[in-house]
Write a structure and sequence with these properties.
Elements: E1 5-15, E2 20-25, H1 30-33, E3 38-40, E4 48-57, E5 60-65, H2 71-75, E6 81-85, H3 98-101, E7 105-108, E8 114-123, E9 128-134, E10 137-142, E11 148-152, E12 157-160
Parallel strand pairs: 7-12
Antiparallel strand pairs: 1-2, 1-6, 2-5, 3-4, 4-5, 7-8, 8-9, 9-10, 11-12
């Protein structure tokens, strides 16, 4: 299901004394988070933050927003989850946000059978690993081009061609 306001990171600390904050990005690349002029503090987009500056520093994003001008005010923002509006994101075809994939039904491309529901995603570095649950069991599926046939977020449907052995007991 497409979600209008998507989680993109969390404020994990401060940087310097002028209100700059360290944000742990929850996206493929910290650079993605630097492209937004407006971030949101809630999943309904009712509380916005105007971004003054955002830059990558090691594995975090250093973020400065209007109204946060001291280390004390930045510290009060610690643990705040940040969101973007889908309308502001230029998401290429074939890419999705993790939270949109969770709870999608997973089907076999060859016989159409239901393999389970996507319950979690692990980022391993080389490729993501999708956790598919069915009848209390968890199956680990590599999210690679040879396996993933199609993803339809609107229909909450994923079609895969599983590697032999993963679902043999179903």
């Amino acid at each position: 299901m497409k979600i209008q306001f998507l989680e993109v990171g969390k404020i994990v600390g401060t940087h310097g004394i002028a209100g700059e904050m360290r944000v742990q990005p929850w996206c493929n690349s910290p650079k993605f988070l630097t492209k937004f002029k407006t971030l949101y503090k809630d999943k309904n987009g009712q509380s916005s933050l105007n971004v003054y500056s955002a830059r990558v520093h090691k594995n975090v994003v250093l973020l400065k927003v209007d109204g946060v001008d001291s280390i004390e005010s930045a510290e009060r923002m610690r643990n705040q989850v940040l969101y973007i509006s889908r309308d502001d994101a230029n998401i290429p075809n074939g890419e999705w946000f993790v939270q949109e994939l969770i709870n999608c039904s997973v089907f076999d491309a060859d016989d159409g059978s239901l393999l389970g529901v996507l319950s979690d995603i692990s980022q391993t570095g080389a490729n993501d690993v999708w956790h598919v649950e069915k009848d209390g069991k968890e199956y680990l599926v590599p999210a690679i081009k040879d396996v993933v046939v199609s993803v339809d977020i609107d229909a909450e449907k994923i079609v895969i061609r599983p590697i032999k052995g993963i679902f043999d007991e179903i």
